[in-house]
Structures are given as C-alpha cells and as structure tokens.
Amino acid sequence: MAIYAARGLCAAVYLIWTYQTYNKIYPSFPCPEKNISEGPIKDFVTIRAQAMGLKKELFVYAAHSHYCCVGSAFFQGKAGIGIDDADKIDEACTQFMITHEIAHVKANDQIICGLVPLVASIFTTFLLTSIAPIAACAAGLAAGLLTFFFVFSWREKVADITAMQYSSDEVNRAVLEELEKLKKQENQFPPPLLSRVFDYFTGGPSLDQQIRYFKAHIEA
User: Fold this and answer.
1) Residues 146, 151: Cα–Cα separation, whole Å
2) What is the 8-class DSSP label of residue 59?
3) Cβ(132)–Cβ(43) below 8 Å
C-alpha cells in the first residue's frame, strides 16, 4: 500500500510540475489594464531585445513580483517581461534587470529550469525502483529539487553575465555599487541562519559571487 501511495505522490508532483512548466512556456498574460503597450520602458525592451538578437515581440506587464519573465524564444507563442509599476528606465538597475530577464527568454531558461529537474527526478526514480521502490520515490523527488536549485543558480549567473555584455560600463558599475552596498548591509545586519540557508539553495548566486564576476567583467 505504501508503495502505491509513494508512486501516486510522485505522479502528482510530476503532473503539477509539468503543468507549471507548460504555463511558463505558453503563458496566459494578465488582464489588459496591466499590460504596458507604450512608453519608455516598452521602447527600451523592444530595442534591447532586438539588439540581443531575440526575434520575438516581448509583452511588458506590471507584475506582483519585481522582475520576472515568461515564455521562450524556442517555442511559438507569447513571451513577456514583468516589471514593477514604480520602475523608471533611466535607473541603471532597472535597465540591467530588464536586460537580465530578456536574456532568460532568449536562452529558453523557462524550459531548462522546468524540464531538466523533471527529467532528473523521473530518471532517478526509475533507476532505483527495482532496488527500493519507496525510497526510489523519495530519492527521485529529492534529486529533482536539488537539480532545480543547481540549474536555477547556474541560469541566473549566465543571465547576469549576458546582461553585463549588453549593458554599458556605466550601468554595470552602478549595479556593482548597489551589490556592494547590499553586502555591507548584510555584514552589519546578518540575516538569520535559516534565512541564509534558504537563500543559499534558492536565491541564485550569492552577493559575493555576483560582486566577483561583476568586478572581473568591468576590469576586463
């Protein structure tokens, strides 16, 4: 009975994960009043996407989370960039983060972050099923979770590096200054241990890593 319950849980997780990945590849955009169809930010997104070789029109919309992207360059269908209502395009961090999100769309990161962990999880479960059926389900889910954290951090770093290549030195220096300010604040007021552990696994590259590769790019 326990084996069937474990397999049912795995199947449910795989279905939900597949559905979420599909929604990110083929997104349904928010209501029209949240779409940003004109203005300096929309113009910047269009020009920057063309400069980065993205042959797809990007929708721009007001998102609840600060900066995000949906869709991909590989599949047909809409792709878009979510920004905060308060963003101003003359700010260096806004320009950089929009470029960062366009890099995600161009590199098909929604597909990579969605499918690679799913395949790793299913493969691990299948590989261990004949040895320990119940443990195989737990190991498969753990493998998928760990793979997602690794792939997510890797793709965030690649998107940062791509965005640096298409941003001006002035913008990159301004972003580096912001990262160094955040690092000083972190040193003065370190977050709780559990928060640091959570950020280590889910937050992408650490501030130390970001500062290092920003400095290396600027110095180069």
Assistant:
1) 9
2) E
3) no
